[in-house]
Specification:
about 350 residues, alpha+beta, Adenine-n6-DNA-methyltransferase TaqI, Chain A, domain 2, 2 domains, four-stranded antiparallel beta sheet, 7 helices
Length: about 350
């Protein structure tokens, strides 16, 4: 392990301008300071590559396998100087860049200020081994995530087949949402009691899995129990599809979260999966978005508006069939999600120890 300046380890380059109006959908990811935004039909950098946030969200690290376009809010590695690309990605992930913030209102990194930052570099053989260990964990996490996405897509297709495209739907009783689903049901948590807490940022845009390890002392917020579906009611979270099925509490335990949740509780157990997929459906979300009120940038959908969403009450036997079919699917999603959380914790524990040399390879 040798200590070198970051400038001796890699060469960083500022990303490139690409206004939204000039982007053309293609196969190359457009990489921002905190993720992949859209795609473009051209690339600026050949993969694999590593990107860190320069403006808005600073530091961190993103590893891009294929060719890509890094935006001007990023810094990308122009020259790895013989180092393992994925190892450098994990090295960036382990560094704290907060002390290099040169911005006032907007966090900003100046790459020239990073030149003197000292990092520890093992030999290339050890870099390869560390990258392989951490990469294998990340690959399993990504595989589980993709499997969950596929399982959910299958569930959505079955939901449409049973309840939207079903030719018998015209024979069902006309009604509204609150006939079968209760909105924001009353629950209580004593003040200052420690309870499970779900942050809005951990609400998934795709897939039902959520990070559920946080616990906080209750002050205020929407309260929920297992089997409830949480719908983010505020812009842009609603438009982005943030929805979660509560499936991480003990029996009869009450958790809480943002006041910007709408809690949807089915009035019978066989409606649990139906409620979740209804909240994910295009027609329901379009209705919710059109019902939003408030000032620009802070619009919300209200309970009273959502309560009027028109539905055809499904046949009881059909609901029972759908519930039974989805039990195995949700069990697999739940198992994969738990494994994702376990692997994520393992990776986050190993990463700094491997990078620092405290764990030998």
């Amino acid at each position: 392990m040798r200590t070198v300046s970051l400038a001796d380890a890699v060469t960083l380059q500022r990303g490139f301008d690409l206004p939204v109006s000039q982007r053309r959908s293609g196969k190359y990811p457009v990489v921002t300071s905190n993720g992949m935004a859209t795609t473009h039909n051209e690339f600026k950098v050949k993969g694999p590559g590593v990107v860190i946030g320069r403006s808005g969200s600073i530091g961190g690290g993103q590893y891009i396998e294929d060719d890509f376009w890094p935006l001007n809010t990023t810094l990308w590695v122009k020259d790895f100087k013989g180092n393992n690309e994925k190892y450098m990605y994990y090295l960036f992930r382990s560094l704290d860049f907060s002390g290099f913030n040169a911005g006032a209102a907007v966090p900003t990194l100046n790459r020239n200020h990073l030149s003197a930052l000292n990092v520890q570099l093992p030999g290339r053989d050890k870099q390869d081994k560390i990258a392989d260990i951490l990469g294998t964990i990340d690959e399993k996490i990504e595989l589980n995530r993709k499997v969950n996405e596929t399982l959910e897509q299958m569930g959505q297709a079955l939901f449409r087949h049973y309840f939207i495209d079903n030719p018998d739907a015209g024979k069902w009783k006309d009604g509204v949402l609150v006939d079968i689903i209760e909105l924001n049901p009353r629950e209580s948590i004593a003040k200052s009691t420690e309870a499970a807490y779900l942050e809005m940022k951990n609400m998934p845009e795709v897939g039902m899995s959520v990070k559920t390890t946080a616990r906080r002392k209750f002050t205020s917020g929407m309260k929920f129990k297992n089997g409830d579906t949480l719908l983010a009611r505020i812009t842009p979270c609603l438009e982005n599809g943030k929805t979660a099925l509560v499936d991480f509490l003990n029996d009869d335990e009450v958790g809480f979260g943002s006041t910007e949740y709408i809690v949807m509780r089915p009035k019978q157990n066989t409606l649990t999966e139906y409620t979740y997929f209804l909240a994910r459906s295009e027609a329901f979300r379009a209705f919710a978005i059109q019902s939003m009120v408030g000032t620009s940038g802070r619009q919300r959908v209200q309970n009273d508006s959502l309560a009027t969403y028109k539905i055809c009450t499904p046949d009881t036997k059909l609901l029972a069939q759908f519930h039974e079919k989805m039990q195995g699917t949700f069990a697999q999603i739940r198992s994969n999600s738990q494994q994702i959380q376990t692997l994520t914790t393992l990776r986050d524990t190993l990463l700094p120890r491997l990078i620092s040399g405290k764990v030998k390879v």
